[in-house]
Give the backbone structure.
Amino acid sequence: MDDEQSHPQSASSPAVPPDALLLIGDPADLRHAADVARDAKAVLYLGLEQALSAGASPVSVRRVVDLTAQNHDLEMQAWTWADQIVRQLDSGADGSTGEWSRVLRRMLFSRIMKPIAQARARAVSVSERSEGVGSVVTLGVSGLDLIALRERFSSVLALDEPSGMSVPRPNDPLKIAIAPLLRLKRVGGIIYRTAQVTARNCHALWTLWRTRRRGDRKSCVVMARHGSHFRVLASTVAELRSRGWTVCVLVPPPPAVVPDYIAVHAQCVVGLWRLFHDRTIGQALLRGSRSRKATAGQAERWAHDVGLGSYAEAISGAVSHARMVTARVDSVMRRLILAARPRLVVSVNETNPWVEGMAAAARLLNTPSVNIQHGVIADTPLRAEFSFDAFCVFGEAYRDVLASLGTPLEVIRIVGN
C-alpha cells in the first residue's frame, strides 16, 4: 500500500521496467516524467531545454540527444530523398511540372524527409547510450521518433499519445447510434464551406479585376505576411507608388493584419486565407481522385525501395498532402495573376510554398517575379535552386551562398540591407 501511494501514476500508467531507459521529448508532462524517472535505469532528453525544464542541473552532455553537429549531413540526406521521390513522381506523369516540382521538393524536404532523418539520427544516438538497457520508455516524442526507436529496440513503450500521431479510440454505443447524423452534418458543412469559399474567391477576383481596371498597366502584386516582411517591403512599396505603380497586397495563410504603413500605399489587400477551407467539395474530390491514390502508391513503393519502409505510411500521407497544397496554390495563383494582370510580382520569405508558388505561376504566365531577402540565408538545401527572375540580397556573401546552392548567378542582385 505504501508503495502505491509513493507512485500514484502506476494506477493509470503502464509499469516501467526496472532496466528501462526513459526518453523525454518536447511536449512531455515533466511532472509525470519526474515520477517515471525514479523507476527508470537511465534518463535521456531530446534537447537541452527539456533537460533544464526537468530540473536536470547540472546537465550532463551524455543525457542530452543533440544533433547540431550532424545537421548539415542530415539535411543533405533529406534533400536527396526529397529529390529522388519528386523525380519518381515526375517519371510517373502525375501532373508535376518543373516549376511545381521545386515547390513540392522543398515542402517534402522540410515537412517529412528532414524530420525522418532527424528521428533516425536520434534513435542511433539513443542506442549508443543504452548499454545495459532492456527497453525504452518515452514521454512526449513524435510518431516518427517512435518508429525510429522501434527499428533499433525490441521494446519501446510510449507512456503518452505521441505528438504528430493519433491513437484510435474505442467506439461507444452513442457514437455509433448518431453516426448517420454526424455524416449528414459533415456533408452539410462541406456544402456550406464550398459556397463560402466560392463567394470569397469571386470577391477576391472581382477586387483584383476592378483595381486593374481603375489603374494602368503599371501594376504590381506584393505578397507578405509577417511583420518583418512588411518592414522589408515598406520602402519598396512606397517607391513603387511614388513612381505611379498600382500595388495590390496578397497575404498568404494564416491570417495577418497588414500594417498601416503598407496599407496606405496599396490599392487593394486580398487575404488568401479567406479563399480556402480544407473541407470543401473540391478538396474532397481531390482526396478521392485516382491521381492522388496513384501518387500515394508511388510514394509507398519508393519508401520501401530506399529502405524507409517503416515510414511508408507517413511519407505517403505527406506526399499526398503536399500534392494537394501545390494543386491548390497553383489554381489560386493562376486565377489571381490572370485577374490582376500585373507587370511584376514581388515577395519575401522565399521558402513559403505560397511565395514560391506565386513565382511558379507567374513564370508560366510570363510575368516577372522578384524576391527580396528579409533575413539570414544559411547554407542549407532548403535554400537551393530558386527560380525567381530576380533575387535581391544584402551582399556578396549571400549571393555566393545562393549561387553555390543552385540559384543562377545572373538572377541574383546585390541591393544592400
Notes: The mean pLDDT is 79. DSSP finds 15 helices and eleven strands in the chain. The CA atoms of residues 286 and 292 lie 7 Å apart. The radius of gyration is 25 Å.
